[in-house]
């Protein structure tokens, strides 16, 4: 048997049990086919750490993979072999022993305060096709600004996850399949309530929080990126959902939010991830430095 013999069953598993997105599943399968094509393995037992590591290294040299690309493709293969372990064709994952290259350290991209003000002004005045589109997109932007939620988490939010009485919402199956509770900022609550009021006047009841303006179907990543592309063109600078997440984290630390509280809100597994944003807190760095008596 070959790896490609399991592609169909993997698709079903990844889509319905792992809840992976279709583009991600497509990327994993493409890497599986490439591995099968570029190696001389005749059956499953021939796929070991040495064989896969040689394949990864040769592809890195041929296609000039960056460390990040290498890690992404490594994760694709790991996910597929985890599935084969589940099917009892492997006892251990041969990809686990392949070392991850170190990533170069870059400062995370955030919006400046001037850019934030520009975006807020444009989101209030932008001419969308439908009136409901205006209120929905405003709620989405402020949801990112006031919670730092990930894009996938926002798209999966359901009405039942929002608890206005307790001023919090529930994130189900966030990154790492972890659930968490996130506080609702007081300034976000009226924006969400107004959007929901307008939506419920015009559309059938939907279980999802953010839906199409013409049906009760949930928004897709493609829909969200289209919104951000339009706003980027209007504002004159690039923005993405994840940039707003970074911006939220940076502004929270500048406002002296406890890093451990921020870790919980963002859904980080380790405080070291949250600490990355501390190096971006230029305002506090300058303020504290100016108070320092050097001599």
Please explain how this structure is put together.
This protein is mainly alpha-helical. The protein has 13 helices and three strands. The protein folds into two domains: 84 residues; 177 residues, Intergrase catalytic core (hpI Integrase, Chain A, Orthogonal Bundle). The longest helix is centred in the first third of the chain and has 20 residues. Helices cover 55% and strands 3% of the residues. It has a three-stranded antiparallel beta sheet.
Helix content class:
55-70%
CA distance, first residue to last residue: 73 Å
Task: State the CATH class of the largest domain.
Answer: Mainly Alpha
Unreliable spans are none
Number of strands: 3
Total domains: 2
Radius of gyration: 23 Å
């Amino acid at each position: 048997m070959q790896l490609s013999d399991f592609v169909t069953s993997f698709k079903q598993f990844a889509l319905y049990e792992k809840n992976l997105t279709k583009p991600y599943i497509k990327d994993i399968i493409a890497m599986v086919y490439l591995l099968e094509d570029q190696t001389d393995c005749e059956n499953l037992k021939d796929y070991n750490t040495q064989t896969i590591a040689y394949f990864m290294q040769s592809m890195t040299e041929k296609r000039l993979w960056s460390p990040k690309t290498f890690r992404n493709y490594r994760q694709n293969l790991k996910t597929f072999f985890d599935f084969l372990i589940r099917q009892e064709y492997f006892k251990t994952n041969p990809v686990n022993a392949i070392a991850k290259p170190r990533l170069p350290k870059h400062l995370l991209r955030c919006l400046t305060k001037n850019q934030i003000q520009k975006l807020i002004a444009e989101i209030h005045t932008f001419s969308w096709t439908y009136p409901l589109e205006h209120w929905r997109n405003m709620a989405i932007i402020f949801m990112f600004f006031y919670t730092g939620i990930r894009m996938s988490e926002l798209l999966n939010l359901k009405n039942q996850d929002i608890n206005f009485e307790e001023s919090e919402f529930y994130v189900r199956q966030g990154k790492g399949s972890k659930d968490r509770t996130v506080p609702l900022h007081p300034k976000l609550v009226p924006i969400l309530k107004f959007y929901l009021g307008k939506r419920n006047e015009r559309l059938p009841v939907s279980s999802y929080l953010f839906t199409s303006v013409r049906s009760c179907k949930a928004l897709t990543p493609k829909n969200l990126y289209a919104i951000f592309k339009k706003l980027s063109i209007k504002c004159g600078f690039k923005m993405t959902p994840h940039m707003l997440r970074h911006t939220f984290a940076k502004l929270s630390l500048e406002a002296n939010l406890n890093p451990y509280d921020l870790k919980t809100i963002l859904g980080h597994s380790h405080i070291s991830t949250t600490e990355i944003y501390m190096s971006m807190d230029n305002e506090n760095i300058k303020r504290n430095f100016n108070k320092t008596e050097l001599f």
